Amino acid sequence: MKKFWMVWNPANRLPTVRHDAEFKARMEAARLAHKHPGENFFVLESKASVSFGCLTWDEHFAAPLTPIAKEEIPF
Description:
Distance between the termini: 66 Å
Order of helices and strands: EHE
Low-confidence stretches: none
Strand order of the largest sheet: 1-2
Helix content: 10-25%
Number of strands: 2
Number of helices: 1
Oligomer: single chain
Largest sheet: 2 strands, antiparallel
Mean pLDDT: 85
């Protein structure tokens, strides 16, 4: 995955836009700061990512049924 940047304002919602260049994130932070005076906007840089392997399922099967003789049924 390529490096990306996001803009975060702790007084508002979480970042959702991924910028593919630092200068684009800085420009967006400046635009938002101008629009919302007195609020802080942080430019965040991705440093690393991790993911786990594929999900696997283990199927559980019931033991095969053995026929029951009529005389073994208690009712």
